Each structure stands twice: as C-alpha cells, then as structure tokens.
UniProtKB/TrEMBL annotation:
It comes from Maribacter cobaltidurans. Belongs to the metallo-dependent hydrolases superfamily. InterPro entries: Metal_Hydrolase, TatD-like, UCP005295. CDD domains: TatD_DNAse. Coiled coil: none annotated. Keywords: Hydrolase, Metal-binding. This is Hydrolase TatD. One of its GO terms (molecular function) is hydrolase activity, acting on ester bonds. The keyword Hydrolase applies. It comes from the Bacteria. It holds the Pfam family TatD_DNase.
Amino acid sequence: MEDNLMIIDPHVHMSSRTTDDYEAMQQAGVVAIIEPSFWLGQPRTQVGSFQDYFSSLVGWEPFRASQFGIKHYCTIGLNSKEANNEALAEQVVELLPLYLHKENVVAIGEIGYDDQTPAEDKYFRMQLELAKELDMTVQVHTPHRDKKAGTIKSMEVCLEHGLDPANVIIDHNNEETVKEVLDRGFIAAFTIYPKTKMGNERMVEVVRKFGSDNIIVDSSADWGVSDPLAVPKTASLMLKRGISREDVVKTCYQNALDAFSKNGRMKEEHWLAPKGIDQSQLFNDNSVLRGQTPRIDSEQIS
C-alpha cells in the first residue's frame, strides 16, 4: 500500500480464495487476517464435514497464509443458516469445545441470525453461553434481511446472556444500524462489498460522521462477488477523502487488534518480527507450490 499502513482484515473467508489473493493482500499491507467459520454455499449434511472444515481453519489455512507472509487467525462457531438443521446443529455444538482452545482461535463466530428462526435463536443463545463460560470474544453475523430488527435483537440477546458489549463485535453494519450499535457499547464492524450492501465510499462517510472509536472495516471476501483488498482500498480512499491517518489506522488495524486479542492468542509481535517467507516448508507433506520454485527469504530466516 502506498501509504505504508499495516492492515488487518478481521473478516475474510480465505478458504474460498486463491494464492494470488494472498499475494495481493500482502503487497497491499495486510499483515494479519481473521477467518470466521461460515456457510459454504450449500448445506452440509454430516458433522464430519464441519469437523474437517474447522480442522482446516486451525491447520492448513494458517500454513497457507504463512507461505505468503500473512498471520492467520480464525473464529469458530455454528453459522446461523445451518442452525436450522437441528439434528446436525446439536452435533456441531458438541464439537465446538474441541476447537475453541486451538492456538489461532480468537473468538466464537460468526454466529447470530439469518432468517431469525426459533432454531437460529436457540443455537445463538447456546453459543453465547459457551462464550461466557470460556470468557471468549463473540463475532456476530447480523441478518441481511430485516437488518435493523435483527441487529437490535442480536444485541438484546447478548445482553440478556450477560455478555460485555465491549467483547462483542456486531458485523455487517450499515448506516441504519451503526448508531444503535455504538450507543449500546458494542463494536461495530462493516463489510465492504464492491457493488452491493456497504461500499467504501459510504464507509468513508460513516467514519466522518461517527469517528473511529469501536468501528472496524472488513471485507468478508468469500466464494461470491467480493474483494479481498476491500480493507486496504477503503483505507486508501479514506486518506484521499481527508480522514485523518489516526482514524484510518484505528478502523483498519488497531480496533481489530484490540477487539480480537483479548484471549492473548493474537499478538502484534507475530508480524512485527517476521521470520521471513519460506515456501520450502511443508504441512502434512504438502506445499502450496505445485512444482514452482519456492520463495525463501534467506536473509531473514535464522
């Protein structure tokens, strides 16, 4: 990034993206990412599918990110859409404690509501209780339909279960929800899409109006039309539109670090003192190279 900012994207589904995306993100200043567990585009039919997916978020994907100089963290949870298969949801919830203690898991998420059904409500509440029991940060997915009512309901349920609003990130906000989220003491995250929902021009005006406290910018880039460079692009646009560098750093780096580092697993030292990229390394005898010459930053490797 031309402004030499360090960027954290705290909501990006890299399992759906390519190595080109990792390279572009690293070149744009992204030093760390958080990958929430989520819906894969079609319903899973067996608990083993969730188990393999969660295992990739704590195993293969952190390795893949490291091969391009990016530190990878994740959040683990049962997404709202698949909470509606109750027989399967019961098995997934039982599985969660096995993963929530892994070294790169920084929160329970993304959980919440999709269609705001009774089953979604049941498993959202169960996972909030788990978060309270384990003293973990929560990353909440708010519904794209009936957005304002769903966002308010999400916050009220968190409060009902005794969670500290300062330890809950309410994601997928827009101009309609941000004031309510901030006024209640929650952290407001914004997903920046290239064409729909929340765009970066609108994000600039949100920061101009509401400031940078408790506001986070993310991309939510996944298998759909989305942009893994949404955060660095938004940071650059904010600077061009006259937002102070301090506010850009807070919304595109520091606030995410503060919000997701509370369990001690996400640390700035992980990327401030990098060991350098070594693509000769293997994960379970596998590499990302497909026969290409590995990049080895030999001058930085001890």
